[in-house]
Amino acid sequence: MKIENFKNEKIKIEKDLKEMKRKSDLISWIRVALFILMVVFLAYGYFNKNNKFYLLVLLSAVAFLILVKYHSNIEAKIKYKKSKTEVYKKYIKRLNGTWYDFKDKGSEFLDENMPHLKDLDIFGEGSLYQYICSANTIYGRQSLVKHLKQTDYNLEDITKYQEAVKELSSMQEFANEIETLSYLIKENKKKNINKEIKKFIEVCEDKTQNQSRINKILMIILPAIFIALAVLSLIGINHIYVNILKLVLVLNLVLAFVNMPKSTAILSPVGDFYKNIKVYYDIFKEIENTDFKSNYLKELKEKLNTDGGSINAIKGLKKIGSYIDLRQNFLGNIILNGVFLWDFNCIDMFDKWKKSYGKNMRSYLEAVGEFEALISLASITYIRDDYTFANINECKDERPNIDFKNLKHPLIKIGDAVGNSIDLKGQTCVITGSNMSGKTTFLRSIGINLVLTYAGGPALASYFDTSIMKILTSIRVEDNVNKGISTFYAELLRIKDMTEYNKKKRPMICLIDEIFKGTNSADRIICATESIKKLSQPWSITLVSTHDFELCNLEDDKIINAVNYHFAEYYENDEIKFDYKIREGRCVTTNAKVLLKMVGIVDEIK
To answer: Is the pTM of this model over 0.90?
Structure first.
């Protein structure tokens, strides 16, 4: 079982982590001991006038620095292993149905102008986005949202994305590595990470040179004068050099202080990005070292090689970032700017880097983000076997079709999901059935799998063939007290949107749950009948669930092409049971009275 594989991998990593932490703790204690030893050697040498102990201090200091570097490497590996553990934890939770606690729910991406996003649980609590998202960077999340929210579908693009996701479905090790590395970026982020990235891209794409010609001259001449005077002062040629030296030091500090606001505005975004440079380097390297077959993945990889390539860009940025990082320390800032006009030099280096790579940095990060989005769409394939990649057609001059076998809802726990089949071509389908029998879930299953398919992802079915259609829904309809909109009127507005789009004579699919449930039965049947007739056009597939058996008579209407399907219940040991399987024809049973008795509202129904 896949869940056992993930659990075994997680156990292996946790075992490695335990050993690494033990080693890290040991080195920490050795570092403390070395530091104490240095202090002892220094004190003993000083008080006993023994210069040999100064050599021991030097050797201890070298050993201490080596241990610091070694300890830093171990801590980096621990962070990487922890990140890998989190990736496996997410897959295990998807498999056992406990993924609802994933923090990134995408609720902010819901749009009241796109009601199908809420109706079909694309974003928000318990949503498709929450379930599949393995993107951890801002560009990765944006890219996944773009795929899931797109409505202007294009067969060429869908096919391109689908081929990429299909290839990634067989590259789980690569996908896990990208997610692991991007998770490190997520862990490194601050609360205002979006603002930080935005500022960084802005300074990268700013074509103006930040360093003036005068500053370029000063940053060469003044440090050179300072160093020359310092050497002359040390060898004692003339005491006057010391006073000039102080003057140059003050001048450097004044220049640095006057330019500090501008320097900070330019360098701070680069410094903020610096903490993630190593991770991005590893991501770029992982992509560069991987061979792809699909054209789109090759295209994304090629984006990372534009104008000298992302790896060279990140190497140069890493060097600049390390210099900028030194100025973060207050004392270091004073010394470096006082001697070298450090900020001027950092800005000059960044200007040169920006000229070569700045305009491409956004493209590099977006390419990584697109990889994250495609991996998210492929994530279902890493935990399930009951999926397929759909056959898709544009349906230019023919009736739109949707034909699937064993279609399941991806958000229902794997062992509990029931597959259903249907084949419609420019038809209206009236679905009847008892309460809780599966009507609403069936409609949502169709909608959410279409969203997945049009995004390039897999469909949860053994077979799926569909036209490209506009998805319109009326499922989770709510009133709006502030706007004075009742549930019934809100549903009218949804149906109106469908009829308005119908006028365009473009392929569309309408998913309507319990049509006009917000009004009385007499009006409901009249309104529903007229609305369904209006929507029943050759370019439209309309699926309507209802408790009104009268709507089943639409099957006899010669003008519209309507069919009846239903869900049923059965009884076992005085308990109501459902198999959630759709069947042809109209429903002939109801269960409201039985449920009324079962929950204890009444004892007996006459």
So the answer is: no
Cα dihedral value 225, 231, 233, 236, nearest 10: -140
Write 485-492 long-range contacts (CB < 8 A, 24+). 486/518, 487/517, 487/518, 488/516, 488/518, 488/519, 490/518, 491/515, 491/516, 491/517, 491/518
DSSP assignments along 464-495, one per residue: EEEE--EEEEESS---BTTTTB-HHHHHHHHH
Whether the pLDDT of residue 195 is over 70: the answer is: yes
Q: What percent of the chain has a predicted confidence (pLDDT) above 90?
A: 50
Burial of 293 (0-12, 13-18, 19+ CB in 10 A): exposed
357 in Cβ contact with 433 (< 8 Å): no
Q: What are phi and psi of 169, to 5 degrees?
A: -65, -20
203 and 413 Cβ atoms separated by less than 8 Å: no
Segment (H or E) for 391: strand 391-393
Provide the residue ranges of all domains of the chain, joining segments of one domain with +.
1-96, 182-376, 391-598
Contact 460, 410 (CB under 8 A): yes
CATH 3.40.50.300 fits 391-598, yes or no: yes
* Residue 302 one-letter amino acid: E
